[in-house]
Amino acid sequence: MKRKFSDLHCHNHMRVHFHMQAKEKKFTRKGEFSPWTVIASNSKNLEKGKMGASYSQIDLVKCWNSNLRLTFNSLYPLERQFVKGMDPKIKEDKWYHFVAKGILGESGLKRDLLQTVYMKIPDKVVDFFQSDGYDYWDSLNREKDFVLIDSGKRIKKNQIHVPSALFGDEKAATKRAKEHPESYVAENACYRVPRNKDELNKSLADDTEITMILTIEGAHALGTDRCKTVEEISKRIKFIKEKWEVPVFFITFSHHFDNRLCGHAHSIPGMGKVLMKQRPHMNEGFRRNGHRIIRETLGLSMNLEQDPTLGYRILIDVKHMAARSRVEYYDLVKTCQAKGDNIPVIASHCGYSGLKTLQDHIDREKEEKDDHCDPTGKFNAWNINMCDEDIEMIVKTQGLFGLSFDQRILGITKKDKDTNRNGIQLIWENIEGIVKSAYSNPNLTDVQKPQIWKSITIGTDFEGLIDPVNPYPTALEYELMANNLVFEIDQARKDPSAKHLAHLKSREDVEKAVDDFCYNNAEAFVKVNYPV
């Protein structure tokens, strides 16, 4: 049987949605674009495994042809700080700070050009994101509407759009389809966003369609920058729960910039500081209004008890949440668990930090320079990643850890960027680090520790402007990754000292563990936790 795949965090529609906005007046669709449309990629950058801005990593055609049958598709109104220019408070201690100031100066045109090149977003769309007319809340609702256009429909054949075509889009598209059918052509294909648990189960049982779960990346998407009162934000959560045609499964509460609710973790390395200002409220805790909004998102009253009037529960993803804020959020989760209400902790697209506690992360915030690693030198020790304390919470709440495929997040530094480590070794090091963390944790029982094997899955962050692990730049390399991982684990289990692998008695056991990582764990999790 062909291996199935899931992805806990990705953006299946992002490239086509950006390009649709550049082509369509007032950002409406008139038939030219759909979620199935493929935007032609820069094949040279794809082959080199470069940052995914210039090529498509996980559009629906690639999902279909890679046998990805469960996708957690993240809606994300782009944060305007990405297109606003450099942080004037940055100390000019790097060569690229001086260069940026010389290149950018005060010229918006130069800055727009650099953003267009850096992020591969059409210039018209950059202009829109910079304008007063760009509103996160409106954008979120438009994005949801776009994603739902073809939900449940079976398409005969998808469209291909070649933005840079010199001699006609149709001719260029036909050529691409012939040369790379796996990247550009899907036939008799279908995806479905389930409206309830019954539809979810039926869709998951049907291998002839992709089950698409909607998530949201960043509470800023609620329009927290423009809402004048917390009541406005509260009403928008209620609107999503009551008026949207389909449920939102989880929300990645923080993202790269201040959402006025919750502290975000440091996430932007060196040269990224040239283009964006991340410091306000970075690495800090919850704000007063943030406590209320996260409670209402979870459907909890002020007494932290389930309140049916607040609607179904939208789970919380702690990726991008600052370590200080995670401390506060876990206090809420522990209180609810003591009352018999389990709230599973999700970390949807992370790496292992190699540190023990959240306090360790807090203590090391000022050390978060490029290539900052844990004491072993293996893992990225920034507080955007998960430490042993996070993993303990994931296990105790029957949560889920999605492993990012971003090489920097997984611990690649400048010195080993072009080495053999930048491959399956990197992915296995992180998986094994997570597993060892659980097995060595004195706060977990012998019954709880093996649960970690059911709590890890793929969470690539494909289409999220990541620089992927070299051999696996797109969803089409899932099968290669899985086969490589089977080999790595099969070799590792033969070490008598590897107690965390003692249950893997044969290669068949290893195959099952990899199948769990690739698909089964995510399917089991969504079946239990999807709204009724």
Could you describe the 3D structure shown?
This protein is of the alpha/beta class and 532 residues long. It has a domain at 11-75 and 135-189. The protein is built from 19 helices and twelve strands. It has helices spanning 14-23, 43-48, 60-65, 95-104, 108-119, 123-130, 136-148, 169-179, 181-184, 197-204, 230-243, 288-298, 323-338, 358-363, 388-396, 407-410, 424-439, 478-492, 507-529; strands at residues 5-10, 38-39, 68-75, 154-157, 160-161, 187-192, 210-217, 248-252, 315-317, 346-350, 400-403, 456-458. The strands form three sheets. Strands 1, 3, 4, 6, 7, 8 and 9 form a seven-stranded mixed beta sheet that branches. A three-stranded parallel beta sheet has the order 10-11-12. Strands 2-5 form a two-stranded parallel sheet. Strand 7 (210-217), helix 11 and strand 8 (248-252) form a beta-alpha-beta unit. The longest helix is centred in the last third of the chain and has 23 residues, at 507-529. Mean pLDDT is 90; it is low at 95-107.
The coarse silhouette is globular
Count of alpha and pi helical runs: 19
Strand tally, please? 12
Q: Mean pLDDT, nearest integer?
A: 90
Q: What is the makeup of the main sheet?
A: 7 strands, mixed
Assess the beta-strand content as a share of residues.
5-15%
> What is the terminal separation in angstroms?
31 Å
Q: Structural class per helix/strand content? A: alpha/beta
Low-pLDDT residue spans = 95-107
Based on the structure, what is the oligomeric state of the protein chains?
single chain
Helix content class: 25-40%
Kindly provide the radius of gyration, computed on alpha-carbon positions and rounded to a whole number of angstroms.
22 Å
